[in-house]
Amino acid sequence: MSWFATLRQHYLSRPLMRFVEQRLPPISRTEQDALDSGNVWWDAELFSGNPDWCRLRDLSISKLSAEEQAFLDGPVEELCRNLDDWQITHELLDLPPDTWAFLKQQRFFGMIIPKQYGGLGFSALAHSQVVMKIASRSVTAAVTVMVPNSLGPGELLIKYGTQAQKDHYLPRLADGRDIPCFGLTGPEAGSDAGSIPDNGIVCRQDFNGQPAVLGIRLNWEKRYITLGPVATLLGLAFRLYDPEHLLGDKEDIGITLALIPTDHPGVEIGNRHFALDIPFQNGPNKGKDVFIPMDWLIGGQEQVGNGWRMLVEALGEGRGISLPALSTGAAKMVSRYVGAYARVRQQFGLPIGHFEGVEEPLAHILGNTYLMDAGRILTATAIDQGQRPAVITALLKYQLTEAMRKLVNDAMDIAGGAGICMGPSNYLARAYQSIPIGITVEGANILTRSLIVFGQGAIRNHPWLLQEIQATQSGDVAAFERAAAGHLGHIVRNLGRSVWYGLTNAIFTVSGTPMTRHYYRHLTRLSSQFALLSDFALLSLGGDLKRRERLSGRMADILANLYLCSAVLKHFEEQGQPETDLPLLEYACRLTIHRTQQAMLAAFHNLPLPWLAKLLRTLMFPYGKPFSPPDDALIHRVARLALEPSATRDRLTQGIYLTNDPNDRMGRIEDALHKVLAATDVEKQFRKLLKDGKLAAYTTEAALAEAKAKGLLDAFSVEKLLAARRATANAVRVDDFPAEYFRPHRQEEPPHHDQRERNTERTSA
User: Fold this and answer.
1) CA-CA distances (angstroms) from residue 456 to 193, 380, 395?
2) DSSP of 528-567, one letter per residue?
3) Which pLDDT tens digit goes with each residue over 267-300?
4) Which one of the listed residues 68, 155, 317, 442 is annotated catalytic?
5) Model pTM?
6) What is the DSSP letter of 88?
7) Where is this region: Disordered (predicted)?
8) Which of 62, 211, 288, 571 could serve as 374's disulfide partner, Cβ 3.0–4.6 Å?
9) Dihedral angle computed from the Cα positions of residues 600, 604, 607 and 611, in that order, rounded to the nearest 10 degrees
10) Closest CA to 431 of 742, 179, 665
11) Three-state secondary structure call for residue 331
C-alpha cells in the first residue's frame, strides 16, 4: 500500500466508515436470514435508476403445458361447476364430503409436488391459474386448495426434507392421505413470527420402545392455522434450546421446524375459528411436553436453527402465487358479472352502466383487474424461471389484496341491494366478507408495506448499500472504499439522469413500441428519480428509516407501482398489442404512474433537511406535476368495455369459471346480457311505440300483446323482448326467506368457547 493510500485510509476512509457505521442500520440474524432467502430480479433494475427494458421485453412469459390446460379444462372446470357456495358457506359450513373426496382423488393438494412422488408437478403459472379459477367460484374452496400448495409441509419437504421424509410424506400429501397444516402464528406472535414463544428442549427420552432416544420436548400454542381442524400432519415452527449441550456448544439454537402427525400423543387439535362467515377449515392447536425424535425435524438434525430462513424463503414464493391468484380471480369475476349487471339493470330508462357516476367505479374495476393480472403472470413467470424475488412477491401480495378490497367495494356500490342481500343468488357478498382475510394472512399488509418492501428492498437491491454495511461490520476499509466510491458514482449518475429526464421528460430514450413508448419513458424517468430519492432517504435518515414507517410505506408504494406498470406494458405486448385493449393499458399505466408521482411528492415533504429535499424536488419536477390520473374520457372508454361481449372483455376475464346458465347465480347475469343485447333494436321500437301513443295497454305484457295483435311487432320480436325482460328480472332478483327460516339458526347456535368457560365457572361456583 502506498503512503498516500495509508494516509487516505487513516484520515479519511476510517473516520468516514465509523460515521457511516453509526448511520447505517445494523443487520440482525433474522434480517440476514431474510436477506439470504430469495434473490433480486426486476426490482433491482428499478432500484438502479436505469432499467434495462430489453431484459424485460425479451423475457419469455410462462405458458401452460397441454397437461396443465387439460387439468383446468377437466377437473377444475368440473369442480367449479359443482361448487354451491351458499351450501358451503351457510348450510354445511364446510366443503361437501364429495368435494373433499374429489380434491383428493384429482390431486389438487399435490399441484407443487413432483411427479416422481405422485404429484402433478405443475408450474407456478398453472398453480396460479387453478387457484384463480376456483376463487372466481368459491373463496372457501380456493383457500382449501391453495394452502397445501403454498406455505406448508409440502413445499418445505421438497426444498429441505431428507430423502426418507420425501419418500414417506410427499406421496401421501399428493393423494390426500395426509392433509397438511402449518403452525406458525400464535397468541403472542403474529406478524413478528421471529419471536415465537413456542419452544423445544433437546433431551433424551424413551420412545417407541427405544431407550434414551435423542429428541425434543415441545410446548406450543398456535392459532389461525388453516386446515388445522382436519389436518393429519402438522408442520410446526418453534424456538429450539439445548441447555444440556447435547448437540453442541450453543444453547439458543434458534427457530426450527418439525413434522408431527396430529394423532401423536400430546397434540391437541382445538375447535374451529370462524373467519367472517368464510368457513374454510381454520383453528388452533397446542401441545404440552410432546416428545419427538430428531428425525422428525424437517431436514433432520442438520437443519436445526435454520427454520426462519426456510420459512421466509417458502413464504416468499407462496405469497407471490396463491393470494395474488385469489385476488385476481375475484377481480375478474367482478369485472365480468358486475359489468354485465350494469348493462341489464336499468334506472330512469337507461342502463346504470351509462351513468357517469357508475362509469367511474366500473372503470376502476376493469383497469385494476388488467393491472392485477399483468402482475400475477409476470411474477409467476419469474418463479417458473428459477427466480426467488422475495421483495416482489411481498409487494405483489399486499398490492393485489388491497386492490381486491377496493374492487369488491366498488362492485357492491354498483350492485346495491343485489349485493347486500344474502342468499343462494348472491355472488358478491362472500367475496366482500373475505376481503380482510387475504389482507391479514401471510404477512399483514400494513407491516408488509411499512417494514418489509422498502426496508428489505433497499438493502437487497441497492448496488452498493449492502456492501457498505458488510464492510463496516467487518472493518474492511478497502472494501468500504470500493463500495463508497461506487455508491458516490451511483448517486451522481442518477442525479444527472433525474435532472435531464425532468427537463426533457425522457423524450430521447427509446424503448417499446409506438403504443407503449411514452410509458416506458415515464418509467425510465421515475426509476432514476426513485433511485436518487432512495439514496437521499437512506443517507439522511440512516438507521432511523426503520422507524419512519409511513415514509418507508410511501417508498414501498413507489416501487410497487413501478413494478406493476412494468408488468402492464409487458402484458400488453405479450397479448399482441390489440388496439381494442388500449383503454385498459392507458388506464392502468396512468393510474400507476400518477400513484408513483404522488407517493414521491409525499415522501419529499416528510424527509429531513427540507431545503435539500425541496431543491431535489424542483430538479426532478421542474414543471410541476407532469402526470395526471385517468381522465373522464378514458374512464368512459374503459367502462364501456364492461357492458357488452367483446374479445377485450374475454381477454380480461380469461381463466375464470364462465357460464350463462340462467339457473346459476352468475350465469343468470351473463344470460341476461346476451338476451338484452339481442333485443336492443326491438326495445327501441317498443319504446317508440309507447312514446308515440300507439299502444294503450298499461303493462309491458299487455302492450306487447297489443303490438303483436296490431301488427306493429312480429311474434319473433315480441318473444325476443319478452325473453330479455324475463332474463333481466332473473338477473336482478334477490333472495328472501320466511321468518321461520331464521329461528332454528339462532336456537341451534352453539355457545361461544369463552361463554362455555364462563358457564362452567358459574356452575362450579
Assistant:
1) 16, 21, 11
2) HHHHHHHHHHHHHHGGGGGG-HHHHHHHHHHHHHHHHHHH
3) 999 899 998 889 999 999 999 999 999 999 999 9
4) 442
5) 0.93
6) I
7) 741-765
8) 571
9) 160
10) 665
11) helix
